[in-house]
Amino acid sequence: MTNQTQLPLLEVQELRKWFQMSKGLLQRQAVFVKAVDDVSIHVQAGETLGIVGESGSGKTTLGRCISRLYQPTSGQITMRVNGEVLDVSALSGKELSAFRKRAQMIFQDPYSSLNPRMTVLETVGEPLLVNHLAKGKELEERVTEIVVQVGLRVEHLRRYPHSFSGGQRQRIGIARAMVVNPQLVVADEPVSALDVSIQAQILNLLQDLQERYDLTYLFISHAMNVVRYVSDRIAVMYAGKLVELGPTQELLSNPKHPYSEALLASVPKPSQRKRGMRLVSPGEPPDLTNLPTGCVFVPRCKYAVDQCTEQFPELRKIGTNAYVSCHLAESLALQGI
Amino acid sequence: MAASENSVLVEVQDLKTYFFLHEGTVKAVDGVSFSIYEGRSLGVIGESGCGKSVTAQSMMRIVPSPPGREVDGKIEMYLWENGGGFAEVVDVLQLKPSGAKIRSIRGKQIGMIFQEPMTALSPLHTVGNQIAEAVLIHEQDASKHQARERAIDMLGRVGIPQPHRLVDAYPHQLSGGMRQRALIAMALICGPSLLIADEPTTALDVTIEAQILELIKELQTSLGMALMYISHDLAVVGEMSDEIMVMYLGHVMEHASTDDIFDNPLHPYTLALWRSVPSIEGKLERLIPISGSLPSPFASQPGCRFFSRCDRRMPGVCDATPPSLKEVAPGHKVRCLLYE
User: Fold this and answer.
1) 8 Å CB contact of B47 and A284
2) Is residue B168's pLDDT more than 90?
3) Which CATH number fits the domain that encloses residue B234?
4) Test mutation, B271, B280, B293, B296, chain A, max A CBs within 10 A
5) Is B328 inside any structural domain?
6) Domain A10-102+182-271+279-324 has what CATH class?
7) What angle do helix axes A196-213 and B268-276 make, rounded to 10 degrees?
8) Whole-number Å distance between alpha carbons of B210 and A297
9) By the CB < 8 Å criterion, does A168 face chain B?
10) Are the beta carbons of A224 and B294 separated by less than 8 Å?
11) Does A54 touch chain B if contact means CB atoms closer than 8 Å?
12) What is the pLDDT of residues A147-199, one digit of tens each?
């Protein structure tokens, strides 16, 4: 669990990632898709921070900025490595390669994320090779060790991805991420492409690895039940903004942002079948190139007042360790699960 | 269960749909029987490859052929006149898949909606024209103008804003949720007595999914349709259905009322599914995954298909004798030797 007195492993400050697109008759007009806009979070060592949101909410972009697959447009990302503070957002060249040993990613689709022409040994061993961590016999030993730990067998090493099922492929992806012994793992929807009976195997594997290696996870998912299972804290994103952040159970039972409430109400619950109609949030997420001036959730929010359309609600602390971006957070009594 | 009070719409008996491939024969659906009653909803749960979609495709006679073919069984549909009088019983498996009869059933008696609305809609035609086309095909006396007015009316009913304007929109101009609404409008425009929904919300976001589920439920009640709801998501199926059928590798493993499936599941596979999905409510416990993975679809097993992954298997018994689907309590059927 999180220890608030400890210094965070990862700190993200006012992070922005805007993508430029062209518009207009001659494609000369530049517009920006504000995929991630002014997001600040911190992650403690050893914790799992769940990031939830719908498509286009910026959760994947945030994960890719943190693992530096994307160069952020502005803002700062710092990571504490051996007592020193590393400015992740400014890394380039050799330092960036060194950072890849600290932070790794696990991807959603185990079919498209593996090279079909590389054997398991090559796929999992590649990060060791490019980072000059091991080669030859040493490399094979290290790969064998990790491959066995993720639940594959030694005889799988010479096989190609096509001979594996979806769950086994995801294990290969996890082994590739784990082989360099990272501190931080960004898992982007790691179980959404898998069958229900396989999801549990992978979720338990991720938890076992976390315990064993004291890993810190950023767990990105749209599935609330999965995020609840793995996360210590949950960050809720909407239209590129962080709208709420809090400890898992507190956020689920007492959401403080109207979007969190709508999201939780939308989750199908087995116990709901005996009740009547559920609360449905009307409308759809806004166009990211043309966001409203005030709160981004205003068009769909049933509690909105004039202040909400005029003034953007900054993320602020509420209670002991929760954060919310809503003017009305104190006065609303929102329904959780 | 009030099933007996409602009259039967579709009766599927011992349906077998096989795919004949170079590598061997895949018994995608292997002896499935069930009934759908007027105004009621049947949920079908299963993982990929369990045969849930192929069952629905067989009912519509849209199984890709070759390589697929319905090799055995009966699918009897009870057809009704427009005025409400009973017309005839048709075994759709005896019909030509492209014949006039099945085409008069598809879209008129049975509507179907699919997972990915973008591939189900033609990108070259406006949504209005695609919806109106169904009216023009099934109702000879409808004029183009009437069909268009009906399409606008239906688009409004499925919750598309400004239907007068969006009737002329192309699918790419609509969001995923709006496309799924347009697809629902197309499926329902001729007032079918059964709607088959094959994972209609899997490609949608959570809040949009909730909107579409509410819409389907509301339309089912107001139009008095029966619903066959296919999904891998246990919670969604639980919310949408009166009764649930659990499928695994072409077999029905358990079939009971929704309450029984959730509160009193009997088959080891159903139980294992429940334990392997993280819950959104209640206490958090460590998940117990189902061991192993799905066996090869080409493999033929003499006994129970779940044998290799079952935690209550009886070696020498379960892998030798195939269990049959038995009614162990009123309305509760299980395919497992533990209950024989």
Assistant:
1) no
2) yes
3) 3.40.50.300
4) B280
5) no
6) alpha beta
7) 40
8) 17
9) yes
10) no
11) yes
12) 999 999 999 999 999 988 888 999 999 999 999 999 999 999 999 888 888 89
Q: Give the count of domains, chain B.
A: 1
Residue B337 resides in a domain: no
Chain B CA closest to residue A228: B280
| Least confident interval from A278-287, B11-20, B151-160 | A278-287
**Measured between CB atoms, does B297 come within 8 Å of chain A?**
no
Question: Domain containing B45: what range?
Answer: 1-109+194-201+226-294
Alpha-carbon span B113 to B183, nearest angstrom: 6
Whether residue B206 is contained in a domain is answered as no
- How large is the C-alpha radius of gyration of chain B? 21
B282 to chain A: closest CA residue:
A337
Q: Please name which of B245, B179, B174, B181 lies closest in space to residue B211, comparing C-alpha atoms.
A: B181
Stretch 203-232 of chain B: residues touching chain A, C-beta under 8 Å: 205-211, 213-214, 232
- Is B182 in a helix, a strand, or coil? helix
Per CB-CB distance under 8 Å, the chain B contacts of A224 are 206, 280
B239 contact residues in A (CB cutoff 8 A):
268-270, 272-273
Q: How far is A230 from chain B (nearest CA, A)?
A: 9
HSE (side-chain half, CA atoms, 13 Å) at B235: 22
Least Cα separation, residue A204 to chain B (angstroms): 7
Please report whether residue B339 resides in a domain: no
Q: What would the two tokens of residue B285 be?
A: 């416990």
Which of A109, A119, A121 has the alpha carbon at shortest distance from A163? Answer: A119
3-state secondary structure of A50: strand
Task: Enter the ipTM.
Answer: 0.81
Three-state DSSP state, B254: strand
